[in-house]
Amino acid sequence: MAKGVLVDIPKCIGCESCSVACKLWNELEWDEQEKNKTAIDRAKEPNNGLWPEEWTSINRYDLEKDSESVARYVKTQCMHCEDPACVSSCFSKAFQKLPEGPVIYDQSLCVGCRYCMMACPFDVLRYEWKKAIPGVRKCQMCATRVANNQETACTSVCPTGAIIFGDREELLAEAKKRIKENGYVDRVFGEKEAGGTSWLYISDTPFEQMRFRTDITSKPLPSYTEGYMKATPFVGVGWAAILAGLYVYNNKGKEPLD
Amino acid sequence: MELVTTVVSKAGAKKSTVKWKFKMTPMRWVFTGIAAAAIAVILVRFVLGLGATTNLNDQWPWGLWISFDVLLGVALAGGGYGTALIVYVLRRDKFYPIARSAMLTSLLGYIVVVLGLLIEVGQWFNFWRPYVSWGHASVLFEVFWCISCYTVIQILEFCEVGTEKVFKGAHKYLKKAMPVMLIIGITLPTLHQSSLGQLFYLMVGKVNPLWWTAFLPVFFLLSSFFVGAGMIVIESSLAGKALNHKVEIPVLRGLVKISAGAMILYLMLKITDMVVRGTFANAFAFDLPSIMFLSELTFGVIIPIIIAFSSLSSTRKGLIWFGILTVSGVIMNRFDVLFTGMGKYLNQYGGSYVPAVSEFIVSLGLVSIACLAYLFLAENFNILGNHESEHADDIEIKDGKYASTAK
């Protein structure tokens, strides 16, 4: 069964244990400039705090709720779409959606065209611009752990239960239950967005105030180009046949051109 | 103009001597200079990476090189397949005099595109991966296959011209293969010209609705077809000056009218598309995208149509204006789809992208290399008209510069 992660935004206290666990498990480098940044700084960055060596980041938003000011921490990373745009956009199959849920990337197949970055509906892909031989970097949802029936590194260390790992279907039911019980915003972000994602978010404050792309389509993105690609071989062969016919017809009884 | 250096190389030096010439004019020195600067930047790019030589970033993974070298390069090279269709398949022999030069421009355009792509992608040494690891759900997969195969086909098509002068033994075989190459060579660009537009259809909700439409492939295809005449007019007037060769007005006018016909279809589809999707309000909002969209259509399509079907197109001046406006319109369109169309979305959280000087140098350098290659090939092979270059050779012989000729 496909796995997923449920993020209960109000439960997060912003301790950033998940970020540390991610760094350790994935052996990501520590960047000097990232050390002094706060969750508030990262929330204001164009990059959302995600960099080639930062696969997840905690962003803090100071919001108004019931005329009280509250702080909400949002964990960002790849959403692991059910039908990912990056997978369909890659012309050399460097991306793969695993049956267990993770969307993984293989740099050895990558040409480096960056069409995936343009296509990603959540803009989570990062490129190693500083390297002479760069690759795309993103959360791999601890694919090797998940394949071995372990949970993701980040969820394994969360002290408050703000992020929990499980079967996506069960998490979705749990999310809906919590929305009802806690009077959250009536939306599981990730249930239908971009055709559904493995990561699910619930919140008591409006998603659009926390940089969620709430106007996103609920159709899987690959479905926008699927028909076109399927028709292409037939259009090509048909058009070539028409051209050949025209060529023969128009050249009949004429001297060929040089 | 008289900075003359003549290069003579003796290939196959036994009985027949083939001679090559290339006169360096001030303009050609300028091209050479830009090309040299570009090669320097390209070397830095390969050693230090994209971050060191471009202003690309995670918000703007695609920038000038993709839009100028690839999107625009392919579109402006569209004159090749269009001319092949009109001349060889539809046999409108009237246009034969421009066929070879249009197809040579197209070939050089594609070589620039392929070089540009190799510089632009991160892992250039992996360029062959899509041939074996088929990501066939990707529109880019189709673009990649078609562009690379079409470039090979175009090189073979040019070999048919080239073997009139060198390796003459192969000429008759190439000539026999021409019909097949021509048909494949029209089919492939039809497919990838439209696919370049379809690339952006995957970016749902990111591109301004003025440009993001299911008609994207049709618009890209039609505009690549109608810009062909504009390019041929500009190119023939530039080459006319540089190489002392003029294409007759009726030939160009005929082409311009065919192109304007395609423009009318394009315009009607644009309007239909706006009606269907209800984007009139966006088009007349008079914000930046709206102004770009309207001027693209007015100056790049409507005015050229008027020029084409009025007496204006019977003068060289009118034709050149048609060319300049049409080409500018398509340049604007391709930049609009990426920069104007996606700017609002990509910059929404403070992203920004202005191409670096080094990016401009590389783009201009690639164009300069193509111009130099065009001039060299047009001077040394029969490109511009029936045996014009052979004729020019005779004059040189009378001058006594060469001992023997290709004849």
UniProtKB/TrEMBL annotation, chain A:
Q: Where does [4Fe-4S] cluster 1 bind?
A: C12, C15, C18, C158
| PROSITE patterns attached to this UniProt entry | 4FE4S_FER_1, 4FE4S_FER_2
Among the GO biological process terms of this entry, one is:
formate oxidation
Q: Which cofactor does it need?
A: [4Fe-4S] cluster
Q: Which UniProt keywords apply?
A: 4Fe-4S, Iron, Iron-sulfur, Metal-binding, Repeat
Residues annotated as binding [4Fe-4S] cluster 2 are C22, C139, C142, C154
Q: Where in the cell is it found?
A: Cell envelope
The record's annotation in Gene3D superfamilies points to: 3.30.70.20
- 4Fe-4S ferredoxin-type domain: which residues? 3-33, 101-130
What protein am I looking at?
4Fe-4S dicluster domain-containing protein
From TrEMBL, chain B:
Question: According to its record, how does it sit in the membrane?
Answer: Multi-pass membrane protein
Q: Does the keyword Phosphoprotein apply?
A: no
Which UniProt keyword terms apply here? Cell membrane, Membrane, Transmembrane, Transmembrane helix
| Main localization (coarse) | membrane
InterPro entries per UniProt: FDH_cytochrome_b556_subunit, NrfD-like
- A single Gene Ontology CC term: plasma membrane
The protein's location, in the record's own words, is:
Cell membrane
| GO annotation, biological process | anaerobic respiration
Q: List all membrane-crossing ranges.
A: 29-52, 64-90, 102-119, 139-159, 180-204, 210-234, 254-271, 291-312, 319-340, 360-377
- Cited Pfam families: NrfD (PF03916)
**PANTHER family (UniProt xref):** FORMATE DEHYDROGENASE, NITRATE-INDUCIBLE, CYTOCHROME B556 FDN SUBUNIT, NI_FE-HYDROGENASE 2 B-TYPE CYTOCHROME SUBUNIT-RELATED
**Protein family according to the UniProt entry:** Belongs to the NrfD family.
Q: What is this protein called?
A: Ni/Fe-hydrogenase 2 integral membrane subunit HybB
* Source species of the chain: Desulfosporosinus lacus DSM 15449
Identify the taxonomic lineage of the organism of origin.
Answer: Bacteria, Bacillati, Bacillota, Clostridia, Eubacteriales
